[in-house]
Write a structure and sequence with these properties.
CATH architecture of the largest domain in chain A: 3-Layer(aba) Sandwich
Shape of chain A: elongated
Number of helices of chain A: 16
Largest interface: A-B, 54 and 54 residues
Order of helices and strands of chain A: HHHHHHEHEHEHEEHEHEHEHEHEHEEH
Strand order of the largest sheet of chain A: 2-1-3-4-5-11
Radius of gyration of chain A: 27 Å
Oligomer: homodimer
Helix content of chain A: 40-55%
Structural class of chain A: alpha/beta
Chain lengths: ~350, ~350
DNA sequence: GCCGAATGCGGAAGGGTTTCCATCATTTTC
DNA sequence: GAAAATGATGGAAACCCTTCCGCATTCGGC
């Protein structure tokens, strides 16, 4: 873009501040430069059919007058907003930051603006969607980590606005997500392959799609390794905040396992790192050490995980953000593009909590 | 162009979806309702001088036609953007989320839009500022946790746009910050009052204002307790990422202390929680337990701190975000308002790392 | 030296609102 | 009952840009 050209001019700053930011329009430039407004616009938008001399003169005048195009007049006339909005639940914390990072990276590379709608409570989604859907407001919307309410879904389909889903899936929109089942499979398999015969799972609320998928993967891993699945070995904490993906739920679930006494598994796949934190607290309160007495594998690879030496499944969050924008922009350019669903595979990050490292050292 | 209105009959939702969201303008409503466009605008903006019947009719028609005002046409005509932009460094992680949460909360309460510019590298600031400064684009800008480059600063003063600083201070703009010195004082004093005669400090790079202020507070606490300050007892890690507020720097600094042998202090004030994480790793690698062998107090109260049982100074981040917006909006309403600087006092959160609590008390 | 094509350019017409002013209708006041 | 005040309304103008149409000029080819 060319705005930056006008941003930083050479003239004496003291002088300029006296001039006082009077709103300069293309008409002013046109008059001053002795040309028509059409020409001004053409110069500023790098339209080819302008002679080099005219162009030079116009640019000179524009700079001298310290011209700044009016964003909203441009957007109105161009019939596009150069804006993308993102509806993101704040409570996903680290996940959300990382994805947002990717989103922002790509968005600013493309010269778009990002309008952020941070969701604290599910009921806010509808209001935000309504705002984002205001006519002309944005060129596209990204929804993160949430089941879009049916009501909103219907409205989204009505408008022809490009929509993208991240960390969520719906047949009607492009989506970028993580292979939850596959990740859970890998995590569980890792524990099994370390020799554990009995692997428990701490899951989140089954209303959450990721929770369900992770359970699937866990189950499949057991089966492939010839171990029969048992309801007894899957526990869910009572705390339902964030669909059970919270620290206390992990604590509660592990406490239940501890109560099993000698029948308690010595290895666990925990459906999120944050739950694993709680689980570890519960363990240490009961005198179990990790990984010496109990092995754990989490899911997400949030920042804490590294500090806690937690073995976990990493989601390529930054990349997901980048791809989400790329996909959205592609759809803006070509609305009839076939709907695309991309799933990223999480990768196993081996740290200490699973016991694999200590084992190798011996 | 407008014929579709005539085909658009009442009810029948199936029909509606076929009609396809044709852009409805106030002219369409005016024609349909048999009134002038001025009246439409008045109704939609709750202007008083419209009869109840007219109002009712207009609203009915607007609803029937599924009218949506065009955001940018409004903003152009109203001469205001109903948008605030925030320039935030992403790397502050948890701090940034929490503040952003407060910002978002207030902003959406006020019906504004938030345009986010996430900074990864300092050199991006200038570009973002230029974008935010585009004529008419935003009604105000908030800068977070950064020293605004002089070049940009000059530019900001030139435009009369309301500007706010959060977690940073400059005489020319409103600011919301944290009393770093005071917090450092409290943290250090806490350790001293627990009976420690020798308290070390792990600091960040002195180019950072917060680092400097925290050092001040540490120093003052020592003095007030009749203990002389010693350069030896302040260490800074070599890793300069994020001005030294990073995990590795904390690790490195603590390693230096460990090398002191028996002269090593048994209590430390660490200038950020994230550095404290590194410090703890260094300690545990060298056989020191926290808090039995060494007491620590951090600063920030990031999420990790709770999980690590780290005693620390909490910054009221959410509130800071809320206040930042309130202040900015106040300045928009009254640009001649006196410049206001608000500092929040951090509060001491006592957990286990300082040794003040026994393990069982939690 | 002529003709058609190519090129540069001016400015009207849009884009969709808000706002202000004049107009007309209705009350109020004396 | 006339004059004045009040209130609702229509619509032009303004907000500031992009785009398109058509005109004028230049250029290349023969």
């Amino acid at each position: 873009m060319t705005e930056s050209n006008f941003f930083c001019s050479f003239g004496s700053p003291s002088k300029k501040s006296e001039v006082m930011a009077k709103k300069v329009t293309i008409y002013d430039i046109a008059r001053e430069a002795g040309v028509g407004i059409g020409t001004i616009s053409r110069v500023l938008n790098d339209h080819p059919s302008v002679t080099p001399e005219t162009r030079k003169k116009v640019i000179e005048v524009a700079k001298r007058l310290n011209y700044q195009p009016h964003t909203y007049a441009q957007r109105l006339a161009r019939r596009q907003s150069e804006t993308i909005s993102a509806v993101i639940p704040f409570f996903t914390n680290y996940f959300f930051i990382e994805v947002l990072r990717g989103v922002q990276d790509k968005i600013s590379e493309l010269g778009y603006d990002l309008v952020l709608y941070g969701v604290e409570r599910p009921d806010q989604v509808e209001g935000y969607a309504a705002r984002a859907l205001q006519r002309g407001k944005v060129d596209g919307i990204l929804f993160f980590s949430m089941k879009v309410p049916d009501k909103v879904l219907a409205r989204l389909k009505e408008t022809n606005l490009p929509i993208g889903l991240v960390d969520a899936v719906s047949p009607e929109f492009d989506s970028i997500s993580v292979a939850n089942a596959e990740g859970a499979y890998a995590a569980t398999a890792h524990l099994l392959e370390l020799g554990h015969q009995s692997v428990g799972m701490i899951n989140a609320q089954p209303v959450s799609a990721p929770a369900l998928e992770r359970l699937q993967g866990y189950r499949r891993a057991l089966e492939r390794h010839g171990i029969s699945f048992s309801d007894e070995l899957v526990r869910i904490g009572r705390n339902t905040k964030q669909d059970g993906f919270n620290r206390d739920a992990g604590y509660e679930a592990m406490m239940e396992f501890v109560k099993m006494g000698s029948g308690m598994p010595k290895a666990f796949f925990v459906s999120s790192d944050i739950q694993a934190m709680g689980a570890i607290s519960a363990l240490s309160e009961n005198g179990f050490r990790v990984p010496e007495d109990v092995a754990l594998v989490g899911f997400d690879d949030i920042e804490l995980a590294r500090h806690m030496r937690l073995t976990t499944m990493r989601q390529p969050m930054f990349q997901m953000g980048v791809l989400a924008i790329e996909r959205l922009v592609a759809r803006m350019a070509n609305p009839d593009m076939e709907i695309l669903h991309t799933t990223f595979s999480p990768t196993l990050i081996v740290r200490e909590s699973c016991g694999a490292l200590t084992r190798n050292q011996n």
